[in-house]
Amino acid sequence: MKWPARKFTVTALVVWLLAMAGPVRAEETAEEWLARLGPALNMTTYRGVMAYTRGDQVSAMRVAHRYQNGHVEERLVQLDGASGEFVRKGAEVICVLPDRGRVQLEPVMPSGPFAEAFANRLVPDNPWYRPELLGDDRVAGYPAKVLALNARDSRRYSYRLWLEYQSGLLLKSHVRSASGEVLESFQFTDLEITDTLPDSEFEVRGNGREIAALLASESGEPAVKPMPSGWQLGWMPEGFVPAAVPRVGRGPAMAFSDGLSAFSVFVEPVGGLNMPTGASRIGATTAYMHRLVANDEVYLVTVVGEIPPETAMQVAQSVTVGDTASVGVVQP
């Protein structure tokens, strides 16, 4: 008389396990999964808490994201350390800075869902990375597909991505060295993917000095600026081409990208200042500074980007200065 009940229990257990494993769908290629990531970044509505690890630095943030009437709205609140809040409505971004210190948006989330340029650059046919499906996993309670973007040489880093099964939303990511070391990681620790969020989720609530700015475009692809005159690169990794110049306060610069990884080059006269040289790295970001003497003038060449230290060093040491009078002058 006990057998039917036992049969029902086993059947229920099997059904529950299948449900926990996620929906059954036709197997997609790694390239097809990558193609879903860009639209999912903008068009998925969600809220949650994320953790971002960069070297030995760990940050926790609360995020809300809504796609409504063709526009993206986001709110990001830093949960530890100095408080900071960022609210985006379309192309307008409002930053609420804390009383002490300053929180900058770009360094906070280079690998996460707010890094719009990151997802936009994940083109499925990038020749410098080999996409590979690694299997299934779960992140923050959601079934995920795990992908690897393996660098085809040692001049750049590899990536590992966890994409939510239904929407394709990025739930977790790693930046990895050639040896497999995880240099940076991002992941949701709590997440709710939903159809809608109330307007109150996107109101500025923090106290502090507000700074408003406009994004160059909602696509995250600012225009490429011309090469600064007076200096040139003698070498760069294969596949890197001129890209958008970063917005920084160090003067004219030039940026290069292979479609996923990127680095910037700064060349500045330093006069008699004794500036530090060599490499430093935080997470996946390398800064390499090289002292260059040309025509009796001393210059500091700085290479900053998500590239290995050996690559940054070779780029910096290949810089030559021709017309010293025009260093830092951007060609028309």
Would you report the number of β strands? 19
CATH topology of the largest domain, anyone?
A: outer membrane lipoprotein receptor (LolB), chain A
- Given helix and strand content, the structural type is alpha+beta
Report the average pLDDT across residues.
Answer: 79
Q: How many DSSP H or I helices?
A: 5
Portion of residues in helices?
10-25%
Quote the distance from N terminus to C terminus.
89 Å
What are the main properties of this structure?
outer membrane lipoprotein receptor (LolB), chain A; Phosphorylase Kinase, domain 1; alpha+beta; 2 domains; globular; single chain; antisigma factor binding; 11-stranded antiparallel beta sheet; 6-stranded antiparallel beta sheet
Polypeptide structure, described:
The chain is an alpha+beta fold and 332 residues long. It has 2 domains: 25-214, Clam (outer membrane lipoprotein receptor (LolB), chain A), CATH 2.50.20.10; 231-326, MucB/RseB, C-terminal domain (Phosphorylase Kinase, domain 1, 2-Layer Sandwich), CATH 3.30.200.100. It is 15% helix and 42% strand. The chain contains 5 helices and 19 strands. The protein has helices at residues 3-20, 30-43, 105-108, 116-120, 309-317; strands at residues 45-54, 57-68, 71-78, 85-89, 92-97, 129-139, 142-151, 158-164, 170-176, 182-194, 209-214, 231-232, 241-243, 253-257, 262-269, 278-282, 285-294, 297-305, 320-321. The strands form 3 sheets. Strands 6-7-8-9-10-1-2-3-4-5-11 form an 11-stranded antiparallel sheet. Strands 13-14-15-18-17-16 form a 6-stranded antiparallel sheet, with helices on one face. Strands 12-19 form a two-stranded antiparallel sheet. Strand 14 (253-257) and strand 15 (262-269) form a beta hairpin. The radius of gyration is 23 Å and the shape is globular. The N and C termini lie far apart (89 Å). 32% of the residues are buried.
